[in-house]
């Protein structure tokens, strides 16, 4: 769950033609991403350079394998290492595309932090101040989650080859961590805000309480032992 602060006058930025512009942005970035993936498809040079490693490390036949990627450096006919301009340019485009959401996260995160901090000091009741403090902590957590589960893994996996580093686990990490992001994103609100946490825990308490078995002992007095 996300908390939004806005001024009524700012809604004009999301109306009319500007609304169409906002709605077109995901399609434009998606088209750029699809074009990048097509440009990084298999080619003869990359296939031959990967053939030995794919066989020795993964025991795979490169001719029967689909992959996406490229080398930042190529070897000319004299054995000299030179930059692969195409691969480097595509990586810079990917970094630029990642820069837009990263900028939005920090920019609006800082603005929200300032607003919440002001609300904490202006709270009219103890409950209001406590709630705003909890929302502030949840905001910080929701800022860090995409940073560690989306941006940093991709930046490291794409940037390591620039420095000659071979990180074999990056493929597994990049393929795994982003899938956890949608699950982890709402958890700060659920566990750091008292009302949500209590509702969440009470839901499971009711479920488990229905399955509890209570031992009951029934005692009947022996009437024969009672004398008249």
From TrEMBL:
InterPro entries attached to this UniProt entry: 7TM_GPCR_serpentine_rcpt_Str (IPR019428)
GO biological process, one term: olfactory behavior
Presence of the UniProt keyword Transmembrane in the record: yes
Signal peptide stretch: none
A GO CC annotation given for this chain: plasma membrane
One GO MF term attached to the UniProt entry: G protein-coupled olfactory receptor activity
Pfam families assigned to the protein according to its UniProt record, in alphabetical order: 7TM_GPCR_Str
Keyword set, alphabetical order: Membrane, Transmembrane, Transmembrane helix
Transmembrane segments: 20-40, 87-110, 135-156, 162-184
Protein name: Seven TM Receptor
């Amino acid at each position: 769950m996300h908390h939004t602060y806005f001024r009524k006058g700012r809604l004009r930025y999301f109306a009319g033609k500007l609304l169409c512009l906002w709605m077109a942005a995901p399609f434009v970035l998606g088209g750029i991403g699809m074009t990048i993936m097509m440009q990084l498809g298999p080619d003869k040079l990359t296939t031959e350079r990967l053939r030995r490693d794919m066989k020795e490390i993964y025991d795979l036949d490169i001719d029967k394998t689909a992959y996406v990627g490229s080398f930042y450096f190529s070897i000319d006919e004299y054995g000299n290492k030179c930059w692969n301009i195409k691969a480097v340019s595509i990586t810079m485009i990917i970094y630029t595309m990642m820069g837009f959401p990263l900028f939005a996260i920090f920019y609006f995160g800082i603005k929200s932090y300032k607003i919440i901090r002001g609300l904490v000091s202006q709270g009219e009741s103890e409950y209001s101040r406590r709630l705003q403090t909890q929302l502030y902590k949840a905001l910080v957590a929701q800022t860090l989650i995409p940073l560690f589960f989306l941006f940093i893994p991709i930046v490291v996996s794409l940037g390591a080859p620039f420095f000659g580093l071979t990180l074999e686990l990056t493929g597994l990490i990049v393929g795994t961590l982003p899938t956890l992001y949608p699950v982890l994103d709402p958890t700060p609100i659920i566990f750091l805000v008292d009302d949500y946490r209590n509702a969440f825990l009470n839901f499971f308490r009711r479920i488990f309480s229905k399955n509890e078995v209570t031992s009951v002992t029934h005692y009947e007095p022996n009437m024969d032992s009672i004398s008249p």
